[in-house]
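hiii, so i know i said id send this last week but things got crazy w the move. better late than never?? heres the sequnce for the chain we talked about at the cafe, plus the structure i predicted for it. fair warning i was half asleep when i ran it
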Amino acid sequence: MSLSSPVGARIPYSQSLMNSQAKGQFVAKKGECYDFAIGGRKMLRKQSTQSTFCNAGIWFFAFTVIALATSGIAIAQEGEAAPAEEAAPAEEAAPAEEAAPAEEAAPAEEAPPKERDYVEISKGATKINVTSSLHYFEDPESSIPFEKIRADDFQDKFTLIGDKKFGFSASTYWFRLDLQNNAEVMQWVMELAYPMLDYVDLWSLNAEGEWTKQESGDRLNFENRYWQHRLINFGVSLWEGDKATYYLRVATKGSIKVVLNMYSEREFGHKGMGELWILGIFYGIVLIMMAFSGLSFIPMRDNICLYNFAFHGLFMLAMMNLDGLTFQLLWPNAPDWNNVGLLFFILTALGFCVEFGRQFVKAETYSPKFNKAGGIVSKVLFVAGVAALFAPYRPMALFCALSVLISITIVIGGAIGSMRSGYGPAKMFLFAWGGMLIGILAKVLSLLGKVPDVVITQYGVHAGFALEAALISVAIITRFVDEKK
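okay and structure toks below
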């Protein structure tokens, strides 16, 4: 399926006229369009060392499973308080002499509302990152209505986001953006750069001074988005010189990451086209390496080719899901599957990854303890992958993140054990996996809110995965030739 979209997709006419009547001006004639091309319009020393290492891995893994299963159920019991004894009635006081009426105090003057710092879109600008200027408020009970959130006396409860990292949280978060437009562009696209957010609502004032709500997120059908793009986005209209306040409500069962950008319509299209080229090259490399690995099974008759093929296929689907591409291109009307599918893809991919590692480094011969530990872990991962389709999302998401770290530890540990036992190809295995594992580790720590969102956490997995796919294919051929000799 092509990742490109036809040039000339039209801006929704109703959005292009937002707030136009407030100024008595006309923005775009009906039928006028921008050039826009984005992702489719509807679219791992010796035996003692090995033994200690692997046994630790097994116990850590088992402990993790038990801990997560126990923490999945929280029982809250409310105890009934004993009624307080009735107080004896006080004696009636003797009537006092009537005091002279006090002078009426003058009513205190109300403090003026605190002036807000508006983020300025400078003249001539077509894009701006406004994340650091956001103010946020945490609603742990997810019970505060918008009418209270927007009230003037509630605004002091908002806190400047700064370098706040949210990670996994059951709370609902409100974000406020105070914006002043000094650019000539009136029609803007507000984009959230992390697509795995369940529900995102945007409140803004329309031309009649009424608050309106736009709804989006990966729990709603894809067609609900302002632009049919892999990332969550909204249409915003703001005249040159005008100020406006916007409120975002974010509720999700996974990791909360808020990176907010503003683009002009045309700039958003150019950015989308550039992203598609980069992602197309990445996924193209992975597909070629998958085909090579699958076809290599015919002359080699080695199961590692099939394990490698399955791992790369499932992990590629997981990466596409995290990039928002599976929701856009494969199942735009199945938001629930889009969420649980991610956990299924990751857990089963990890299972095949562990199996591939065992076979490649010949763990049964060179690292028997790892062979036993890896076999247990891979079976648990396959079972967990199926369970993720039915179990509660949040505990399974946390289990999935921890499974990535455990699987990496076991695979690398097994490879190191085989290499120290004298098996040469294990060195190439470690070399091929090094870059991808660094990228995966950075990504998981970012999702858990332990490290900031930087380039390596965003694209480190992509670059490492493509490099690993190419190098591991060469390693498989080299291993096969060495064994023939």
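btw The first strand starts at residue 119 and ends at 121. thought thatd interest u
miss u guys!!
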